[in-house]
Each structure stands twice: as C-alpha cells, then as structure tokens.
Amino acid sequence: MAKFAVIKEHIYQKIESGEWPEYHPVSSENELSAEFNVSRMTARRALQELSDEGLVTRTRGSGTFVAPLKSQSALLTIRNIADEIKMRNHKHHAVVRSLQSVPALPHIAAALQLDPEGHVFHSVITHFENGQAVQVEERFVNPLLVPNYLEQDFTEHTPHEYLCEVTPLTEASHLIEAVMPTKQTAKWLDMHEVEPCLQIQRRTWCRDGVVSQATLTHPGSRFRLGGHMTFKSTQRSSRGAAKGSTTGDEQ
C-alpha cells in the first residue's frame, strides 16, 4: 500500500471507530510526516484526498478537522449513491417505500417516450448514510427496456447499479433546483417541512431509448454537490506560436 494510502487508512479508522468525532482536529501535515516517516508532500496528498472525499475539512490558518456528516455527490458524473457513501468509509442501507407498476401519467409517458395509456414501473427508496436519511429516490422506469425491474431487491443493490448492469447508460440529463419538501418526503428524510431540499431531476438513456426518469431529493443541510473539471487549453505557448510563425514565413 502506498504511504499516502496508509495515512488515509489510519485516519479512516480513527473516524470510523468514533475516536475522532465530528469537528475533531486531525493531525497536521508535519505531525503525520513525523509519525509515518514520510515527506510533507505525501502527508498533504493524504489530507487533500480525504478533504475531496468529504471526510475532513481544511482551513488555512486553523488546520484540518473531521467533517460533519454531510453527503456529497458528483455534479457532472452519475455515480451509485451506495458507492459514494462507502468511499467516505460510511455505511449505506436502503428502505424501499414502494415498488409497483402504475399507470403512466402524461408527463411521465412523455419523458419515457411511451404510450400515455400504458403502465410504467415506479419505485420510491430512502437511502441512509450511517443511519441518517440522505436521499429519497423516486424513479419511473421504462418496462419495455427493463422488464424485470419489479423483481429486484433494492435493499441489496441500488436501482442505479441494476440499471447500469442490464441497460448500460449512454446519455443523461440533469435539472437541479432548491425545493420545499412534501410532508411525506420530510417524514422520510427526518427533517422539518420548512427546511429546503436540493432536488435533482435525472433522465437516463441507453442505445434503445429512455431508461428512467428519477427525482433525487436531499435535505439541504446534509447534502452538497461537488465537481472537478479539467480544461484543455486551445492556445499555443508563446514558443509554439513563434515557431509556427517562422514556419509560415518560410513557406
């Protein structure tokens, strides 16, 4: 195991065991360097990756602390919520509220590109992180593309995990907005009805058509979206530009 990974595992264990609760100070880069006989750069990498994963928070001049339990999802990628929770070294479990075939309402039929007089599969699931509700997932699924959806045990694997296995996704769209929860959603998320939620509307496609339309609702105080983007510059370096000009003159 790489040295930075050893440091991460050490901190994981401190947090998971409860020895380091929320807001507990984490050893500094210098302290970790001395304890594990590594360079400060290696210690910094371990702490930065833990920060990126949402396990610790880092503040210049104050130090590093165990982060409060607050779920984070990637903004520009589609990931399995169970995997995201496990990446934070936390425990995931799910409660299935509903799993049935229902008449396709006009807007759902349109979203799934189905006959408005037909039926669709419908599931509602609450996802938990370390025993705390972090997401209500309501999903309408195209029965023509996923005929065995209702036969699945979604306490053992998530709908996203199953759908990716049987109908590999090729495209997705997102709509993100702040909303107030319904009375039922607030109850399932164990939150006050006056507390705002962050809601993601997500539609996914495979090569054969629209697979599902999902509404993912999170308590605003316990969830955040994050992302990292890398941009490829279209500008040439000054040296490259000069070389190009010279070549052009020669021609």
What do these coordinates show?
- GO terms for molecular function: DNA binding; DNA-binding transcription factor activity.
- Pfam families: GntR, UTRA.
- Keywords: DNA-binding, Transcription, Transcription regulation.
- The chain has 251 residues and is an alpha+beta fold.
- The chain has 2 domains: 64 residues, Arc Repressor Mutant, subunit A; 156 residues, Chorismate lyase-like (Chorismate lyase), CATH 3.40.1410.
- It is built from 8 helices and 11 strands.
- The strands form 3 sheets. It has a 6-stranded antiparallel β-sheet.
- A hairpin with a 2-residue loop joins strand 9 and strand 10.
- The protein is elongated and about 70 Å long.
Task: Give a brief rundown of this model.
With 251 residues, the protein is of the alpha+beta class. It is 30% helix and 32% strand.
